[in-house]
Amino acid sequence: MLTRLLHARYRVTDLDKAIHFYRDVLGLELSRQSKSPRGSELVFFKVPGDSVEIEICKYDASGPVTLGPDITHLAFEVEDLEDFARHTAAQGYPLSDGPTKTSSGSIIAFLDAPEGYEVELIQKA
Hints:
By secondary structure, the chain is of the alpha/beta class. It has 2 domains: 1-60, Roll (2,3-Dihydroxybiphenyl 1,2-Dioxygenase, domain 1); 67-125, 2,3-Dihydroxybiphenyl 1,2-Dioxygenase, domain 1, CATH 3.10.180. The protein is built from 2 helices and 8 strands. The strands form 2 sheets. Strands 1-4-3-2 form a 4-stranded mixed beta sheet, covered by helices on one side.
């Protein structure tokens, strides 16, 4: 029986760019960094105060990262979407879609992360 989600993994080609994005742009906490037995470079991030991690993996032997549109995304809750969007735009990552008010009154928007991954931002009603 499953007890909790531990992490999700995204593979990248440019690890330094990914670290900058997830740590400095999104503000995630770099929780640990290691090398796997097969040689993958692994960096784990989490939202401060949360235990679920995002594993960023660089493994050149797998070839280039190729991601089609609308395959996957991460979704994060933000306190103030407008303020957060100003912060990410100043770091070179403007919103790619939105903000859009949903039927529940929440506001959502998206930005593009390195390697073509999408990040959804949600300001709850």
